[in-house]
Amino acid sequence: MSYVTVTAADGGSFQAYHAAPPGGGKAPGIVLIQEIFGVNKVMRDQADAYAALGYHVLCPDIFWRIEPGIDITDQSQAEWDKAFELFNAFDVDKGVEDLKATLAQLKSMEGCSGKAGSVGYCLGGKLAYLMATRSDADCNVSYYGVGLDELLSESSNISMPYISHIASEDGFVPKEAQEKIKAGLSGNPLVTLHVYEGQDHAFARQGGAHYDDPSAKLANGRTAGFFKANLG
């Protein structure tokens, strides 16, 4: 596995971790959108896992405009403090533009079939929703996306299949926000909402405090089937 350089629409460039599928031939792509801890081992392992299913995966450094090369964990308070500092400084709109640039590069990469979707976790889940409303990705998946209730005015722009995995006890997405999300998205036939009862934020993060193996396997299986159906 390696890193590739992506050129931003407004100038500058940033790195994206590239995981390639086994064997030769054309394969579809996935833009993997990081959590607030950067392109760390959790994200690289996740990229490798999607690649093993038969996809070209790019996981871009979305914090590059603030501090390039962030690679921290969720295992210490100092790292959490750093992660939230980055989260609070992050420009969402510019981040989406960087993800669109990543998507365009992925679709044009040698070996990519030209079809590509996105999947994101936490902050990345929010950005995957915005990829559904603002990009030409062929499908998109959010895991416990934060702040979606404040972005529902864009939901009418969803024109390709979208899944949102919701943790019923998400400490970062209150019940009231969850109800707004369900009400705002459930009427769109392109949207599928999966609620994981009793689960907290980041239930699919390997090694995380709230990791739940059965729920993670269920969500990941649904995502794998969704990508296979919509990307080939």
Automatic annotation (TrEMBL):
Which residues belong to any copy of the Dienelactone hydrolase domain?
Answer: 14-229
- Cross-referenced InterPro entries, in alphabetical order? AB_hydrolase_fold, Dienelactn_hydro, Dienelactone_hydrolase-like
Source species, domain of life: Bacteria
Any GO molecular function: hydrolase activity
Q: Which SUPFAM superfamilies match?
A: alpha/beta-Hydrolases
Keyword set, alphabetical order: Hydrolase
Protein name, please?
A: Dienelactone hydrolase family protein
